[in-house]
Amino acid sequence: MISDEQLNEYRLSGKKVRVVRDAIPENDIRGIVVAWDDTHVLIRRPNRNVVKLDRNYIIQPTSEPRISLEE
After folding, report:
1. Which CATH number goes with the domain that contains 19?
2. Residue 42 lies in a domain
3. What is the CB neighbour count within 10 angstroms for residue 48?
4. Distance between CA atoms of 27 and 8, rounded to whole angstroms?
5. What are 16-68's pLDDT values in tens digits?
6. How far apart are CA 41 and CA 68, in angstroms?
């Protein structure tokens, strides 16, 4: 699970993040971190929709290469 400090850094910088939910890259959610609690994080997508996701997903900056979940 991603730490509160890392989420706060993403929120304050406005850095775009990628939420990797499974092995298919097309299913990733991209946007900026808006808010979070103990179990969920809110991501604002480019079309201004807000998505509520579980914090156990992999959250990384879009500038980094995508983490592969295939083993």
Report:
1. 2.30.30
2. yes
3. 7
4. 24
5. 999 999 999 999 999 999 999 999 999 999 999 999 999 999 999 999 999 88
6. 21
Give the count of domains, the chain.
Answer: 1
- Token pair of 35 as six digits: 């808010």
Residue 31 lies in a domain: yes
**Strands 40-44, 50-54: pairing kind:** antiparallel
CB atoms inside a 10 Å sphere around CB 29: 16
For the whole model, what pTM was predicted?
Answer: 0.88
Query: 40-44 and 58-61: which strand pairing?
Result: unpaired
d(CA 32, CA 16): 5
Which residues constitute the domain of residue 28?
4-61
